[in-house]
Structures are given as structure tokens and as C-alpha cells.
Amino acid sequence: MKGTMKNFSYIKKVALLILWVPVVVFIFRFISDRHVAALIAGIGFILLPTAVLFHEIWGNCRRARVTILSCVQFLILFAWPIFLLRVFNWETEFNDILFLGVSPAILHQYSSWSYFLMVLAVAFQAFMNWRSEKRQP
User: Fold this and answer.
1) Nearest to 9 by CA among 44, 46, 59, 71
2) Among 101, 99, 69, CA closest to 84
3) What is the dihedral sign for C-alpha 105, 106, 107, 113?
4) Region 24-31 average pLDDT
5) Cα 113 to Cα 136: distance, rounded to the nearest angstrom
6) Which of 50, 48, 66, 46 is nearest to 58 (CA)?
7) Contact between 118 and 70 (Cβ < 8 Å)
């Protein structure tokens, strides 16, 4: 029963991470100020992976290294830098900013792939939990 609950927890994490994407689209569609919309979206892109990360660390899930590493890489390489770029350059259009010589469009494109890989890592952990649960008598 415990394994089933842990697997359900991973399924909820995957669902939340996936559902955040259409929520962000909705935010940008209905909030006319793009700076505010980006701020709200950025907060979500930081809070959700951080919650998954802390749940993994405090949940004592030693087998969830892939999930932990995927969350850390997304947060450090993309979520925080993009969020801070937007906050510290509030008056500047996002596409006019350069970060270490990289345009935000490229940074954003790679962040999408990074987010996708993070979601896959959490889904993989759910699958691994399900598989180990099936093998136990």
C-alpha cells in the first residue's frame, strides 16, 4: 500500500507540472501586462519544481536522484536566471536583454526542453516505483 501511495504522489507531481504549462498560456492570454504575466508564470516555474525537489529530499527518496538532479538543473540553469533577468530588467523588453551573450529566446527554448526532461524524470520515477511495487510479493 505504501508503494501505491508513493506512486500516486509522483503521478500528482507529473500532473501538476504538466498542467502548469496551459495555465501559463492562460495567464499570458488574459493578463494584458506581459511583465506581470511573466512574473506570475516565473513564480510558478520556480515554486513547482522547488516543491518537487524538497519533497524528494525530505521524503528520503534515495532512488529519486534523477528527479532531484532534473529539478536542480532546471531551477539553476533556467528558472532562476530567466526570472531574475525579467525582474532586474523590468523596464526592458525581454527580447532586448542578453545574458552572458545569449538571447532570451534561446534561453527560453532550452528551458522548455529542460522542463520537459524534468517532467519525464518525475514520470520515470513513478514508473520505477510502479515496477518495483509489481515485483514485490
Assistant:
1) 59
2) 99
3) positive
4) 96
5) 35
6) 50
7) yes
Sequence-separated (6 or more) residues with CB below 8 Å from residue 14: 119, 122, 123, 126
* Secondary structure class of 136 (helix, strand, coil): coil
- Residues 59-97: tens digit of each pLDDT: 756 667 888 999 999 999 999 999 998 899 888 888 888
- Residues 114, 73 contacting (CB under 8 angstroms): yes
C-alpha cell at 44: 510558478
For residues 50 and 118, give the distance between their C-alpha atoms in angstroms, rounded to a whole number: 12
Q: What is the pLDDT of residues 93-132, one digit of tens each?
A: 888 888 788 887 888 899 999 999 999 999 998 888 777 7
C-alpha cell at 60: 528520503
The model's confidence at residue 28, banded by pLDDT at 50, 70 and 90, is very high
How many Å apart are CA 35 and CA 70, to the nearest integer? 27
* Separation CA 56–CA 37 (nearest Å): 29
